[in-house]
Write a structure and sequence with these properties.
Order of helices and strands: HHH
Radius of gyration: 14 Å
Largest sheet: none
Helix content: over 70%
Distance between the termini: 27 Å
Length: about 60
């Protein structure tokens, strides 16, 4: 159990998960723009991308 808990805080796993989430968000933004979604939807997605990019920049390489 302790190993599982420490794996969730491993920077390598966290970076991987954030990169996957970033890719999903970028696809969602592209899809929203193609279908002329409300600007607030795109703004929310872009805001989330910015927060993830910030989190990624704080992780060790």
């Amino acid at each position: 159990m302790n190993t599982l808990a420490s794996a969730s805080f491993n920077p390598l796993f966290l970076r991987h998960d954030l990169m996957i989430e970033l890719g999903r968000l970028e696809m969602a933004i592209d899809n929203a723009r193609e279908h002329a979604a409300a600007n607030d939807t795109v703004d929310q997605l872009e805001s989330r991308c910015a927060r993830i990019n910030e989190a990624l920049s704080k992780l060790p390489a």
